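Q: Hi! First time doing this. I have a protein sequence and I read that you can turn it into a structure. Is that right? Here it is:
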Amino acid sequence: MSFNWLLIWTVAISCLFMVFSMWRSRVRQLIYYMPAAIVGGILFLAYKRNPETAGYYAGVVWFTIILLPGMTAHASSNYLATQRYKLAYLMSLIAWISHPWGGTKDQIRLVNALQELNRGRNETAISLLESLRLKRSAAGRTAFIVLTKLQGRWMEFLDVILKSPHPRKLLVDPLFRNMYLQALGETGQTERLIQDFNRLSGVKAGSGSGVVQNVARLNVAAFSGRADLVALLLDGPLGHFDLATRKFWLATAMQAAGRVNQANIIFAELGNATDRQIAVAANSRLQQPVRNVIDLSSEHISQSLTEIEASVDHENRFALINSIASVKPLATYLLMFMLVVMFVFEMFHGETGRVVLQSNTLSLIQKFGMLFENTANGLNLVEMGALVLPVELTSNPLESVVKSAFMHLGVLHLLMNMAGLWIFGPRLEEAWGKYVTFVAYLICAIFSVYLMTVIPLDASLTNSVMLVGASGGVMGLIGCLLGYLGWGQLLRRNRLVGSEFNLLFTIVIIQTIFDQSTPAISSECHLLGLMIGTTIGFLVGVAHSLKSRLHTFSNRKPRTKAA
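A: Yes, that's right. Below is the predicted 3D structure, encoded as structure tokens:
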């Protein structure tokens, strides 16, 4: 497998995924599809001319007009959230230069507006926001929402939605949908807030991420006076919210529940917050408290809140892709360290290693070049104990199985598996802990290689095959996630858990197609690791559920009866 071939696949999948995501979100303006069309066209023409270099040409264009703008736009939004305006401006400027389509220039003006707001220059900020509010870009929608919050124009916002010829189309946008729900709560329409939350939960297109879904739940919980449910959300899936935002929503729930004095103390403190949006909202709460919902005793409303609590609890256990890491992934770090150590041994093993260590004439670049080439030398790996099939050609098969599960054929092979470990390992470790994750990986990695010794392949004494790589272990981690999520879906149907399962299943399909179309990759080993991991994931899910039930049963108080 060459880096060029990997780039071809990466660029092609990225363009297809980009087009599919925009179409699914009902983006119909052709200008938004231009970057994917340009990159796809260059990849097609370059491949027809010279397949050996097509990935490099298309990769440069892909990085320039798709990857770089996406990364910088995301970074700009993150910096805005943490009020680092200079960095947000720089990132949005890079995004606009590399991707002048789709309203990226509006992001620069949005950054300027929020920076002016933070400096207390309200008139300048509002003027900039007013110039953006009717734009169809993401920055335009954000400006409209910020203005609504700053000026308390909740009824005006509701009129825009409800008087639209197609309000449901507007509410497909997750930002507008959540703002609509908040507007209902701000105007005291708590019953309708919960009713429309249940109705809009069925909107699929543009539904957004798990964070967006949980922000909608946060609105329902806060305006219903459920401070306990607000705390559950803020301590779990919304744990990345800053302290001022967390205090604001907890105080909102307190105020709605009738604990006005306690809530007002918090709002008075937040009135001097550095985040001007929070400060304005807190002062607004002091002047105009939210509706007291003590009289809100509808059974339908109670059932809705109970359903939200059950869903959040279920997602905290099973929605691993959208989860926020709360522990250091020590098992993942250890496994990555083990792979790097083995790779270093590969580099310095044999005659090449001795030459490099003893040479005084080779430059540093030449030495590293020789060492990296040594890791792609099949003879060197066999001498280190790599598994050779048929197994009769290996002197110590069991030792070779273990070694092969940690060895790699070249630096690209190592980096790909390290990336897989880094992406999927922490997700599993968050749910299972470091010990179970570590053992599960070892089982998948080693047994996927071992089973290759008993499965009949085309290998023979005259046509031997060397097998190395941690790919079986990485595919095993994906399998563990699939099995665990699958069990979660069997326990309780949940959209977020189901979407994560579908995402992983799509990754497996893409990986399988890639394996089948790429020479020198053992698709059988990958499939075995996936199957072993899926079985482990399902069994761990069952074990966790049994443990939870036993814990609940043991905590029940026994009923007493008179004799």
